[in-house]
Each structure stands twice: as structure tokens, then as C-alpha cells.
Amino acid sequence: MVRRKVEIKAIENISKRHTTFTKRRQGLFKKAKDLCTKCEAEATVITVSKAGNIFAFGHPAVDPVVNRYLSNGNGDERVHGGNWMVVAMEDEEMQLLSKAERKIQKVMGKGRQEWNLAIGDLEINELDEMEAVIEDIKRIAAARAVEIVAGGGKDQDVKCIGKDSIVPYLRR
Amino acid sequence: MVRRKVEIKAIENISKRHTTFTKRRQGLFKKAKDLCTKCEAEATVITVSKAGNIFAFGHPAVDPVVNRYLSNGNGDERVHGGNWMVVAMEDEEMQLLSKAERKIQKVMGKGRQEWNLAIGDLEINELDEMEAVIEDIKRIAAARAVEIVAGGGKDQDVKCIGKDSIVPYLRR
DNA sequence: GCACCTATTTATAAAAC
DNA sequence: TGTTTTATAAATAGGTG
Question: Which residue range or ranges hold the MADS-box domain (chains A, B) (predicted)?
Fold first, then answer.
């Protein structure tokens, strides 16, 4: 329970901070989505945790809103060159987040913290092999996507999926 | 007063929509700010009203967060395409195969057959999210590779790693 | 650590001014 | 139209399993 007026100041305890970050980020994304729905607006929210992990929400997607902001005379010179994809949760996909997360747990077996620990034990050759494993999973996932698109799944009217994912590649 | 459960659907009345947009935008900015304060995180929120007016919040400012997002491989200028390289394993590495497989089981939790079954339950949106999870794993693995190459230091900056593979780029 | 719970704070829709 | 009020819904900190 909220025991007393919630103080807005830095949380020192790491796990508590992480919990709060996750909860409030989800709340923030939901509020952004509600705003977009109710007001027919566009919005993007980009968060960077203290650990440096990036999470972003966008309606209709992150890029159009960011580009709109940048092309409107705002923004520094754009800096490019890195290459990691970010977790972009969008629209209705967001509503299914915890359900989806649960199912994905079934596939991947563990959560981020555990990967961190387990991966920390791997050596170079094992990392190489892990990549092959990841490749394998990705192939299976792509096959599943084909199956759905071909008419076997329930979610065929999901439309605004970003260009970076397993699914849109199949749709090109 | 909020007279009843607030419906999240488009508001047709223009002035009412504008009022709601303003209030919710303020609320959204405040929540983003609180998140940053409490979790020592960075965040930006960019909104575009139906009329096309842009409002943005950023901590520490909009641009650093946007650039961070863009420089992490997101954004329009990212090159896309199938880009996963599999590394051929050589002799001595080969000898370690089953040991490696065991360790990778620790990371990935399941074997091929189980992935097949579990992935078969996923819907489109869940496949999308799974890709984010895969990216996350890959990122952790890349950090580990850097750690090894750098000689044991933890959590080196991973920005120099290429897009195609966890390990090989480090070896260039 | 994650999912669920719930007491309490916080956000906000509409009224009142 | 804008600001303030206020009744109610929504978010969430901390607890539990």
C-alpha cells in the first residue's frame, strides 16, 4: 500500500528502484496511449533506465513522432552509428504485455536477471554457439509468424507493427 | 468529477478534447519527471495534438534521450535486413560442444523441441515482443563478449559491436 | 524475482464560479 | 474562456505467496 505521501526523490536500493522503474514506466506508457486514444494525438515516450536500458513507446510508432519533433526545427544534429534495437511496445500490444511476457517466459525460460548471471559464465566459443541457438529460435519464430499470416492464428488484424520485428519482415 | 469509469475512446467535442489533451499532457509530463527523479532515469515525452502542435518534455532534456534512442540503432536510417551471422565452429571449439550446449541450456532454459511447442502458442504481438527479448539477450551476450575480450572487466561499453553478430565483430 | 493484492495517494472529468 | 473545486477513477508502494 502507499503508506504515506509518496516522496519524489531518488531510490537508492537497486531492486526497489528497478521495481519502481518498471511499474512507473508501464504506467507512463499506458497514460501516453490513453492520451493518444482520447485526443487522437500522437506521442512517444522514451525512457533510459539508470542501467542504460532503453524502452520506448510510440503511437502510431516512435519514429514518426521523433522525426516530427526533429523536422520541426527542434533537436541537435542527429547522431547515428550505434546499432542496438530497443524494446518498442506499441498500442494494443501494450495491453497484452504481461500476458505476452508470461508466454515468452515459457519460451525463453528465464528473465533478464537470470540471463545476466548465466551469460556471465559463458566463454567465447559458447557465445558463438549461443548465437546459433538464437538463430534457431528466430527461425522457429519466423515460421510461426508465417503460419499466422497464412491464416492459422488469431491476430491477423494487428496492423501497426514496426519494421524491425520478426513479423513485418515476412510481410514485405 | 469523474462521474463514471472513464472510457478510453476518442473525444469528438473539440474544446473538451483540447481540455483533456492539456490536462493529460501535463499529467504525463509530471509522471515522466517523477520517474526520472525516483529512478535516476532519463526520459523524453513528445506529444503531437490532433491540431499538429508539438509539446515535449525531456530529462535531462529531449535531445540527449532522442539521440540515445537513435544512436542505439533505431530510427529511419537504420539499415535493415536479415543480419544474423552464424559462426562456424572450429576443431577445438568443437570438442567443447556438449559442454557448451549444457551451459547454453542454462541460459536458454529449453531445447529445440520445447521451443517449437512453446513458440507455436505465440501470437503476432507476442512474437514481436519475443524479438525484443532476443535482442536483450543478444545485448547481454555482447557485453559478455566485450568483457572477455577486454580481459575480465565487467560491463564495458558495448557500442563498438557490429550489428550482425555477438562475437565475430569483436575479432575484427 | 514476479504476480497478485489493497490501502492510500494521485490524477482527472466535470461542475462551479 | 480560465481557474478552482471536488467526487470519483486510476495508479501505485509495499506486502504476500
Answer: 1-61
CA distance A71 to chain B (A): 11
Distance B46 CA to C9 C1' (A): 27
Q: Is A65 in Cβ contact with B76 (below 8 Å)? A: no
Predicted TM-score (pTM) of the model is 0.53
Question: Strand, helix or coil at A172?
Answer: coil
Cα-based angle A15, A16, A18 (whole degrees, multiple of 5): 65
Residue with C-alpha cell 499470416? A149
Pairing mode, strands A87-89 and A42-48 = unpaired
d(CA A65, CA B47): 8
Residue A44: which of A65, A23, A27 has the closest Cα? Answer: A65
Find, among A45, A145, A38, A30, the residue nearest to A91 by Cα.
A30
Q: Mark yes or no for CB contact A122/B104 under 8 Å.
A: yes
Q: What are phi and psi of A144, to 5 degrees?
A: -65, -40
Per-residue HEC secondary structure of A58-89 comes to EECCHHHHHHHHHHCCCCCCCCCCCCCCCEEE
Per residue of chain A (172 residues), what is the pLDDT tens digit? Answer: 776 777 888 888 898 999 999 899 988 988 998 899 899 899 999 999 888 888 888 888 788 888 888 877 665 543 322 222 222 333 333 333 445 555 565 556 555 555 666 676 677 767 777 777 777 777 777 777 766 665 543 332 222 223 233 443 333 2
Q: Which residue of A has its CA nearest to B106?
A: A118
Phi, psi (5° rounding) for residue B109?
85, -35
DSSP for residue A154: S
